[in-house]
Design goal:
With 525 residues, the chain is mainly alpha-helical. The chain is built from 20 helices and 2 strands. 69% of the residues lie in helices and 3% in strands.
Amino acid sequence: MEIPILSILIFLPLAAALLLAFVPNAGVVRAAALAVSLAEIVLAALFLNFEPDAALHLVEKADWLPSLGMSYYLAADGISILMIWLSIFTLPLCVLCSWSSVAERVKEFHLCLLLMTGACVGVFCAMDLVLFYVFWEAMLIPMYLLIAVWGGARRRYASIKFFIYTLAGSVLLLVVFAALRMAGGTFSIPELMRLETGFSFQIWIFLGLALAFAVKIPMFPLHTWLPAAHVEAPAAGSVMLAAVLLKMGAYGFLRFCLPLAPEASAYFAPLMIVLSAIAIIYGGLVALGQSDVKRLVAYSSVAHMGFITMGIFLFRERGIQGAIIQMLNHGVVTGALFMLIGFLYERTHSREIGDNLGLGKWIPAFMMFWGVFALASFGFPGTNGFVGEMLIFLAAFARQPVVFGLMIIGALLGAAYMFRVSLKMAWGSPSKGKGLADLNPREWICLIVPVALVFWIGLAPGFFLKTTQASAKKLASDIKLMKDAPAMFRIPGQWEFEPARAGADAASDAAPDTGPENAGKGERP
């Protein structure tokens, strides 16, 4: 009998939260939460390994309510596996980074972290619409509590705004799932992917799904809840929000919109590309003008997620693969930046750039880590951010040269705002760092793992490219874009290509052709 590893990864933190609810000692709860998080990592390392193809692996399926077409259906593939790993590796970092900063309601705080992790892993594993919706909604309350109870001065406003935005998107999701059940007679996602539906039906399905996922990413102009939530959330809440929750929206586009509504995805692709380009430029410009370092990183997330949605809706294998890898990269880098901001706030009790000048002389280890993650944030060569962004840039240049130019501007803005804040914090005058303690061993442990991932992905990305390649190729080849296909509008400079070669062109993105029989078959402008 095969071990139900996905169920264990989901329900181990949920069971731990249930048991720890009856433990009165806060120190025991904190230690137990850390132990559970490390057990999750060990289980994931031992069992989350499979052939990197487009098939579903680690499948667990059992009847739930067969009369209604519901089943307990879990699986993982190249789209979800990196997100499962990211969710699991984020939990111990959240526990460690909040070890000394959370002194009140410690038990409840760690219960929320455990519940969040179980629900997030469930979202990335679920292959049944109802099961997906249950996990999608289950993460809402713990995140709301993390902001509302342990947040900053305006935590009530930020938590309510987060709750209303997310709940509104969830209602749309429920309506779409009901429509898909009526059309396909099942809630099984793989079975619904084989369902042939009309263009008008796909339009409505895409709109409902896209609005729900756009709120979660969040895409411009539905992004206004994100800066408020990040600024008011505790450090662990910001890490969980940046590393995992934002990825659920992008994952939804990959898992649902493209496979279930391919024609509608092609129809709305120009709009999604334009909104992504606006997010990249807007997020960079607003981040450039921030004086609060946490708000700066929050707006940088708007720009980074714009790169991810851009990669998805270019419908190129390289773009989709770059989007998946960039989802991982953003979680690693931005989560680490929020941890550093939390460590700095514990020392100076301010997130204003002007109150944190000239720290390089006094806390050099802190600034060393900050410099590494700042470079990775804007995609410096040798870091993980470069790999994901480069794949998306290549896809944009191949498909949409005008958008490629806008992305270059966004990348330059990213370098500008990260250099601005980093130079001031390292060498700004007058120095505010005298007397501050540098990073302690616990904080070093929190940051070593993200740093290792930054350079592993940046210098040797082969494992991650291989893991995502087959799934990205399948998604790209399944989108049948045609020269005369209906579209909202055409973006100037868009390359044209022949309908019969759409799948072949998408498949050819993986690597340069090596056989003589493929010579001269590149895409023609």
